[in-house]
Amino acid sequence: MKRVSVFGATGSIGQNTLDLIARERDAYDVVALTGGGNIGQLAKDAKALQAEVAVTAYPEKLDELRDALAGSGVEAAAGPEAIAEAADRPADWIMSAIVGAAGLVPGLRALRHGTTLALANKESLVTAGPHLMAEAKRHGARILPVDSEHSAVFQGLVGENIEDVERIVITASGGALRDWPLEQLGAATLADACAHPNWDMGQRITIDSASMFNKALELIETREFFDVAPEQIEAVVHPQSLIHALVGFRDGALMAHIGPPDMRHAIGYALHWPDRKHLPVARLDLAQIATLEFRPACEKRWPALRLAREVMHLRGLAGACFNAAKESALDAFIAGQIGFLTMTEVVERTLEQTQAREGLDSATVSLDNILAVDHLSRTRAVEIAAQLA
Ligand code: NDP
Ligand code: MG
């Protein structure tokens, strides 16, 4: 029996992970499931999978969770520290699928026990990439990518030598507003940005796809995960979302990973790694698809990509600032305080001011520095968003 925990179990990635676990119920012991506000789903899954413990991020929801779990034998806990403690429970495999930088500390706690971490939470690599990778190395823990592009690259590198890699190309659908005229983008509403053409995902990442902040995070994620130079990493718009990434080698070969837009492939690959097992994803009919299109990922249309280049060059604490400012700007857009294009402006100004005042390109970075910059950048981004509102 493989002991597994799922952090962010009530979300889009979490639910897809539980779907795969439930299909092979006898193969897994479920240790911890964590969620946020969706107590009904959390309790239902914890009972069905007989988890040891269910944890909500919100202390004020503890009574509701306790009531929902009454008589089931599943423990209830609440709060960020309880989530981090759930990562201390012995497990063989942990899915990190909390959304946002809140996923960082539980992920780090799991790595310190040498646990294999399936990482969907890209924000933790953007916020603390070098620290996270160093901790994994120090404790002999493995991180397996779950983001579809990074899973594709990881699979493309099996049996290869990283020194032979010339470039990594990650694809972007272009999101909900891909075909909108540039001059109309400023007027895009929340509903417009939430209508993703290909992938069914959580609300925040869907909006980040429309603004390309998702791809910006993924460029940085690629840099940190595979330790390749920023110049070797490219993004290309691919409206069909069938090719997830390509790895280019020094002999000119370009290996593409193609598959349906279903996260259960990447999740299942990480769950069964290093083996491959049957997965319930659609099989592609290539003749039916007929056409695969590619377009340049224009930095004028999607300035988040230009900011990602700056962050990759600054490194140090720049990723922590970038991600935190992005999360605050996204909150302000969801709350209707700022427009769609103002999100990028908030992030750019937060980066500029923080670089000018505190300096972001420091060579030595501790978790305390990272968390301090995360906090400071959120406060600053909220102020900037209020000024621009
Ligand atoms: P969702 O919004 O669907 O789910 C997020 C999960 O995190 C939920 O379980 C939510 O609980 C929980 N949560 C929210 N806030 C907190 C908090 N402060 N502390 C602890 N838990 C919290 O997100 P997705 O599943 O779409 O994304 C999860 C992660 O995976 C993100 O990092 C995203 O970038 C990444 N990812 C997602 C992909 C996708 O296809 N969805 C693809 C590739 C990467 P509740 O809902 O109960 O409030
Ligand atoms: Mg992705």
UniProtKB/TrEMBL annotation:
Binding site for 1-deoxy-D-xylulose 5-phosphate: K122, S148, E149, S173, H196, S209, N214, K215, E218
Alphabetical keyword list: Isoprene biosynthesis, Magnesium, Manganese, Metal-binding, NADP, Oxidoreductase
EC number: 1.1.1.267
Residues annotated as binding NADPH: T10, G11, S12, I13, G36, N38, N121, E123, G202
Binding-site positions, Mn(2+): D147, E149, E218
Domain (1-deoxy-D-xylulose 5-phosphate reductoisomerase C-terminal): residue spans on this chain: 143-226
Catalysed reactions listed for this entry: 2-C-methyl-D-erythritol 4-phosphate + NADP(+) = 1-deoxy-D-xylulose 5-phosphate + NADPH + H(+)
Pathway the protein acts in: Isoprenoid biosynthesis; isopentenyl diphosphate biosynthesis via DXP pathway; isopentenyl diphosphate from 1-deoxy-D-xylulose 5-phosphate: step 1/6
Domain DXP reductoisomerase C-terminal: 258-379
Cofactor(s) this protein requires: Mg(2+); Mn(2+)
Pfam family, one: DXPR_C
PANTHER family the record matches: 1-DEOXY-D-XYLULOSE 5-PHOSPHATE REDUCTOISOMERASE, 1-DEOXY-D-XYLULOSE 5-PHOSPHATE REDUCTOISOMERASE, CHLOROPLASTIC
Main function: Catalyzes the NADPH-dependent rearrangement and reduction of 1-deoxy-D-xylulose-5-phosphate (DXP) to 2-C-methyl-D-erythritol 4-phosphate (MEP).
Protein's recorded name: 1-deoxy-D-xylulose 5-phosphate reductoisomerase
Source organism (scientific name): Thalassobacter stenotrophicus DSM 16310
Gene: dxr
